[in-house]
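quick one: uracil bound model?
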Amino acid sequence: MRPYELIKAKRDGQVLQSPDIRAFIDAYTKGDVTDYQMSAMCMAVFFRGLNAVELGAWTRAMLESGEVLDLSETKGIKVDKHSTGGVGDKVSLSLAPLAAACGVPVPMISGRGLGHTGGTLDKLESIPGFRVDLSVADYRRLVRDVGCCLIGQTATLAPADKKLYALRDVTATVDCIPLIASSIMSKKMAEGIDALVLDVKVGSGAFMKTLDDARTLARTMIGIGNEMGKKVVALLTDMDQPLGRAVGNSLEVIEAVEMLRRQAPADYTEITLALTSEMLVLGGKAKDDAEARKLLFAAMDSGAAERKFCEIVKAQGGDPAAITDLSKLPRARTLVPVLAPQDGVVTAIASEAIGLAAMMLGAGRAKSSDVIDPAVGFMLEKKVGDTVKKGEALVTMHVNDDARVKEVTERVIAAYALGAKAPAQRPLVLERIG
Ligand code: URA
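yep, here:
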């Protein structure tokens, strides 16, 4: 079928045949299907969806548009974690060294922040010298010798997704479950893993605003993974307020190291432990959550997890002294408190608005060519359920450029809802699907 006929068939709700999907995506990767044709196809998929067979063919075509890495020279079950993205989500920074310190090899190909969500690569790059652009050969070697490597998507890994994601970003077709699931899973299946833990964020700061949508996305991704012979477990976790207290690149690295020292906020600590525990079980290092947690606490208390973080930093060109002495990480020139306009209890924090305000301060990008400032961001002094007095700090802003302070302050105040009584506490892990 010609591209026009395939687009029309999907627009009219017909089921596409696997060889046609394959040919369409291959032609798009080569440039024979144009961006406007692919945009029309994505919009048709947005409204009509893909059934399980179509989705399998779509994902496989994206996966096989590039190289599928072979990490068989690394012994053990290789397990990665992927988050659908949130605000203050620095889980990968503590989870990767923790899992590696417990003997699970972690090959992790991560992304950059865009819009209101942060990206692991940007956070890691706030560590002086840290390189995320290593070659595939170095990636393979570090997974084998260090037990973990965190890099960015290479040009040869799922190139169809790289092109397609950029297109979806400007054609209002990002928030579409089959397109998100195939995008994430094609990249994850290309990185050489045996098993995967998914952190599907739910709430105001996440792509998935409702539990039902998050469940559907999780089940869709698990289905794709299983069909490709991989074990996949998903935790649906709360993103109705930013995770932990730090939002901003260097600030999040500091909080991640503090987590390994057991000094981090309880919500961030618990979500990291729950996800890493799943990795230890999938990786064959623990028989259940209780046993996994014993290993995780031992790795933190003995210092093994922090030493593993230093080892990873050193292997990727960074300065491990910036981990053992956190004052060596980039710090902003000025701290500016955002003061509560009235007494009350924090009933909600609009995570997406906080993420966007951090972006305005320089911690994130509005477009992919923007340069970020690693030092700036927020420390949330008050979280949902906390009591606050008028004039007390809700947030401390870490600022390098005063020009935006007034506007960012207004946005932070607007993001905080203050009421008379604390809302019912939401569980951090809302559901486990596996
Ligand atoms: N993350 C991805 O990698 N792809 C999507 O489509 C959405 C989030």
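The chain has a mean pLDDT of 95.
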